[in-house]
Amino acid sequence: MIKARALTKRVTTAEGELAILKGLDLEIKAGESVAIVGASGSGKSTLLGLLAGLDDASSGEILIDGTDITLLDEEQRSAMRARLVGFVFQNFQLLPALSALENVMLPLELKKDDGSGRSDARQRAEYFLGQVGLSHRGHHYPRQLSGGEQQRVAIARAFATHPKILFADEPTGNLDKKNAQRIADVLFELNTQQQTTLVLVTHDMRLAERCQRILWMDEGKLFHHDPLVH
Predict the structure, then answer these.
(1) More exposed terminus of the chain, fewer Cβ within 10 Å: N or C?
(2) What's the CA gap between 187 and 176, in Å, rounded?
(3) Where are the domains of the chain?
(4) 53 backbone dihedrals φ, ψ, rounded to 5°
């Protein structure tokens, strides 16, 4: 489902060129759940952004469901994301002017190619809000919801489009321990139910250990075992 070959990312800073990713190879099978862990600044979120087509690699190739996305322009990458990808971010990224239900409906309504109407989008959004235990909060706005509730809305929104791949960047990072546990339960329950390929960036080893595989990042390189443990 996801393949990266010789993937590099370099940025220019005041001190000169900085290599954030250094020739990564990565393969993730369809339906697999993979956690990417590592210290701050190790390149985890950069890697996630490249795999999702949100940023350009300096060199290398990224195949998503067989298509090399490094050859696509921004419009084509955007269409690929709409068709294949769901996102859950640390800071929820809900639109404040939309209700919980409308936030979940939004990506469904933006999918112009599947021929479904607004009533179908509403039905699916209501179903997924129910799946995360928030049927009763559909008409509330983000400011009226707790952090844990906002993240559950974000998870419902991510799964509502039936993505083949879900990218989650520190999905429990802004939550207390109790809410983090609940979010993890909801995320993995829905992921199993929908047979989604999950790529999860996290500092939380308890969350990482719920994935089928853990990859460690250190100084822009990927390891199958923790490089700090000898």
Answers:
(1) C
(2) 16
(3) 30-58+70-223
(4) 75, 20
Rg for the chain (alpha carbons), in Å?
18
CA angle (94, 99, 101) in 5-degree steps? 95
**Alpha helices (runs of H) in the chain, residue ranges in sequence order:** 44-51, 74-84, 100-110, 118-131, 147-160, 177-194, 205-208
| Unique residue bearing structure tokens 């001190």 | 15
192-214 as b/e: b if 16+ CB within 10 A: eebebbbbbbbebeebbebbeeb
Considering the domain 30-58+70-223 in this protein, what is its CATH number? Answer: 3.40.50.300
Phi/psi for 134 (5° steps) reads -125, 25
How many angstroms separate the CA atoms of 188 and 30, rounded?
A: 15
User: What tokens were used for 144?
Assistant: 């009226």
Q: Residue 61 is which amino acid?
A: E
Per-residue pLDDT of the chain (230 residues; tens, 9 = 90+): 999 999 999 999 888 888 999 999 999 999 999 999 998 888 898 999 999 999 999 999 999 999 999 999 989 998 899 889 999 988 889 999 999 999 999 988 877 555 555 678 899 999 999 999 999 999 999 999 999 999 999 999 999 999 999 999 999 888 888 888 989 999 999 999 999 999 999 988 989 999 999 999 998 899 887 766 64
Closest CA to 216 of 13, 95, 44, 21: 44
In Å, how far are 26, 64, 217 from 4, measured between CA atoms?
A: 5, 9, 15
